Amino acid sequence: MSLKNLLTERLSQAFAAVAGEPVDPVVRRSRHADFQAEGALALAHRLGRPPREIAAEVLDRAVLTDLCSAVQVSGPGFVNLTVAGGLLDAQLCGMAADARLGAAPAGRPETVLVDYSGPNVAKEMHVGHLRSTIIGDATVRLLDWLGHRVIRANHLGDWGTPFGMLIEHLRDLGESSAAHELSIGDLDSFYKGARVKFDADEAFRQRARQRVVALQGGDPETLRLWRLLVAESESYFLAVYDRLGVVLTRQDFVGESYYNELLGPVTDELDRLDLLTDSGDAACVFPAGFLGRDDEPLPLIVRKRDGGYGYPATDLAAIRYRLQDLGATRLLYVVGLPQRQHFEMVYAVARQAGWLRPPARAEHIGFGLVLGPDGRKLASRAGDSVKLVSLLDEAVGRAGALARQKNPDLDPATVAEVARAVGIGAVKYADLSNDRSRDYVFDWDRMLALNGNTAPYLQYAHARIQSIFRRAGGTPASGGPTGSAPAGDSISVTEPAERALALELLNFGAVIGIVEQNLEFHRLAGHLHAVAVAFNGFFEHCPVLRADREVRNSRLALCDLTARVLRQGLYLLGIAAPNRM
RNA sequence: GCGCCCGUAGCUCAGCGGAUAGAGCAGCUGCCUUCUAAGCAGUUGGCCGCAGGUUCGAAUCCUGCCGGGCGCACCA
């Protein structure tokens, strides 16, 4: 049990005795002690007694001698709690012996579907896909680690009218040269080539339209060409994901086209349920509570006037499939904030149709924009969106230059490895360390800085620990992302810097539990940063290798535990922790 | 017009009901014969957009303004 819970439990009993009813002691971390209990303040009004008097009586009745080395009433009525060293030691040892580092596995594992990344076939991946891919990846890693059954859903844009134009362009170029252009990742010029012809050439436009009809009609040759486009794009996306270090695989690609045959049946079902309204020849659902301009009810257009289906229909088919066929009880849509209303409407319809029922729920994991230094949406000098691969190349390039400059002793292979870990890690961390719902400013110098709340700072703390173990003449017991339990040396913290580090480390499990619920990864990032800060303080003030044997072993164990927390935390964010840098 | 997100130090951001609002950068000061100074320690800097309200207590909750961004029927 966590320190906070232990303290809460004991204090609850004392508070209940004083108040004559259950009271939350409200235990929090404190600047004035290790923890503080604030419950007396809230109680004062109800009991009509001064809060300090209540706090004093609570302390009188509370059994805390085995948990705290000092307790004190302070300020207007806070109870300040200093955790006993022995308790810290025991907690640290327990944590060190736990492969999960004190993070509770899911109490009730469920099937979670995460919809993220979602690039468009035959189009370049750009910064617009960055956040969804990174946040989705972290979501998948965390929930999977906690023992949930996680289904990764990469909802590719692989269907729709643009494919008429793209397939015709493919035929014009010839399959082999088109495939070549696509396989080298030059999707931009392929798409633009098609676009230019479509805009300028009436004959091409005609062919494109007919091709759309053929595609929707299931013409075998058209489908073959379409599959070629999709397959080439998928290969390209996989290369980008590999570079990014994202766990998406080809099996996770379930594009919009997958739902084509479900569109009719879903529409029929909505009709049977009497949810469908004919509105100007379009088949619409009007979920309650959604109003558009001029206060008219806002429709979700299931079938367009021309008989075609748009993305609302696909999203409805997908949500039904995910709930009914895949059995997901938690649906996470990692999609930009602007689409908030659209998804709220989809969920509302799914609820009205009876598909989305508790305990199943759907959540929009929305996020803001990536801004350039000018405070506007990040764009290239030419004004168009920045290719994701060029962004990653630059990240690795900059990190490599920094690595060579800061640590000239590294051999080229290590530099390459460090450059990748640091460069890609910096980009991901810059994203995940900010509140999802806000826009954030993309700034190379800041995200690659060794100071502050950055990936390199955390990675550096980890590398310093590994350096200690190299010099100690042995490798730390832990190796993988989760690691195994260390040698079993007992930990004993005495110095203030050790205590500060211990208190941060012991917070890991609670933070994981919170992020499991709200998927606010900046809280995990903030925790890891606090751990790294505490470690660097410890590193400065508490020699490890020069200490006497007993202290040395204890500190080595503390170092290993710190490394494991950093490594596991970074792993959950999708970031590598190199052993040297 | 309606709805959503956001206004915290010069800059980039935490904090989202509790004690004197915290980091990093930028500025100023110290610390490398000692486990990676890619570090540490110190210091300067804030009517928490404005105004009401709720509360023993508000940056945090409610209401109304002001400012910025984004959505709101057949493109995804």
TrEMBL record:
Tagged with keyword Nuclease: no
Cross-referenced SUPFAM superfamilies: Anticodon-binding domain of a subclass of class I aminoacyl-tRNA synthetases, Arginyl-tRNA synthetase (ArgRS), N-terminal 'additional' domain, Nucleotidylyl transferase
SMART domains found in the cross-reference section: Arg_tRNA_synt_N, DALR_1
Broad enzyme group: ligase
Motif ('HIGH' region): 119-129
GO terms assigned for molecular function: arginine-tRNA ligase activity
Catalytic activity: tRNA(Arg) + L-arginine + ATP = L-arginyl-tRNA(Arg) + AMP + diphosphate
Oligomeric form and interacting partners: Monomer.
HAMAP family referenced in this protein's UniProt entry, alphabetically: Arg_tRNA_synth
Family: Belongs to the class-I aminoacyl-tRNA synthetase family.
NCBIfam families cross-referenced by the UniProt entry: argS (TIGR00456)
Listed name of the protein: Arginine--tRNA ligase
Organismal lineage: Bacteria, Bacillati, Actinomycetota, Actinomycetes, Micromonosporales
